[in-house]
Specification:
alpha/beta, about 15% strand
């Protein structure tokens, strides 16, 4: 049975005598820092000298210092920079100041699970992972609500790592929605799988294949774009609001019948077998090794794939059509 934590389970006062160092001020970093500040926590943002985020953080009313200075002065140090950057920053700026009694925290388990960051044995290591992009997390918080989150404990030297993690989760607003108890392994592997097989890789590949199928059959690219990409938001929003059942209730009977009868023809048993191979690469560490090597080599395949997809006809047609719908920018 899943364990969920809410507002009543967390004691924000546990942060009263602590300084929280937020390393990074991107999507997640700015949301964590500002939400914690608004919750009354003492926050310092750690950045590299010359970072374009430095003045942005200061303008938001936050204290800013180098990552090393922030780590030295903080009791809780939260790593909110890209996975591929964390090991170097950790070695150079965090580890030298990671004294006994401190807490090292993450919002994603990649580097702990795959052992590219190895904390000393005398510190608590935990994770609070909000299940939303940072800008959405901040927006919801300012409206008095919160996004769900995950909590995991890797090292509990103090005996209070879970309580501190819950206090942090309350400070960023996650306990308002609910916090699921998990592990670094589960969060990392399910997160990577979700991105690769469904949310990003699966969806974009399905959309491209649908677009190409219609265009190759002689239909207008513009019509294909509207049918396989533009209306996708409608369907996802319905599922987000009430699950697949609510989506099916909301669409036509024709669409619902097509869902049941034709969907499994497209995403058949072979697709599930492919998903299992993707998951196996994640579980074995093969994907992590590949991604780390790709970064070590300067990301040649990554940039090549990015450029190839940017030049896909779907993107060109989409850019032209979106230019006709300026209101879309207001929804971001």
């Amino acid at each position: 049975m899943a364990i969920m934590y809410y507002e009543k389970d967390a004691d924000l006062s546990l942060l009263d005598d602590k300084t929280v160092g937020i390393i990074g001020f991107g999507s997640q970093g700015h949301a964590h820092a500002l939400n914690l500040k608004d919750s009354g926590a003492r926050v310092i943002v750690g950045l590299y000298e010359g970072s374009s985020s430095w003045p942005k953080a200061e303008e938001a009313g936050l204290e800013v210092a180098t990552a090393a200075e922030a780590a030295e002065r903080s009791d809780i140090i939260t790593m909110l920079i890209p996975d591929t950057t964390q090991p170097r920053v950790y070695r150079e700026s965090i580890l030298p100041h990671l004294g006994e009694g401190k807490t090292l925290m993450f919002a994603h388990g990649f580097n702990i699970h795959f052992k590219t960051v190895a904390p000393p044995p005398n510190v608590d290591v935990s994770m609070v992972a909000p299940k939303a992009p940072g800008h959405r997390m901040r927006e919801v918080f300012t409206k008095g609500s919160g996004v769900p989150g995950l909590l995991a404990i890797h090292q509990d030297v103090s005996g209070t790592a879970r309580e501190t993690g819950l206090a942090y989760a309350k400070g960023i607003g996650c306990t308002r929605a609910g916090v699921l108890d998990t592990t670094f392994k589960e969060e990392t592997e399910t997160d990577l799988f979700g991105e690769q097989a469904v949310l990003c890789g699966g969806v974009t590949s399905l959309v491209k294949a649908g677009f190409e199928t219609l265009v190759e059959a002689g239909y207008q690219p513009e019509s294909a774009y509207f049918e396989v990409l533009h209306e996708l938001k409608l369907i996802v929003d319905l599922m987000y609001q009430g699950g697949m059942d609510y989506m099916r209730y909301s669409v036509s009977d024709t669409a619902e019948y097509g869902d049941y009868s034709r969907g499994p023809q497209v995403v058949d048993a072979s697709v599930k077998e492919n998903m299992k191979r993707v998951l196996a690469d994640i579980q074995s560490g093969a994907f992590a090794k590949e991604w780390i090597t790709e970064n070590d080599e300067g990301r040649p395949r990554f940039y090549r794939m990015r450029q190839t997809d940017a030049e896909h006809p779907l993107e060109k047609v989409g850019a032209e059509l979106r230019a006709m719908m300026p209101w879309l920018k207001e929804q971001v």
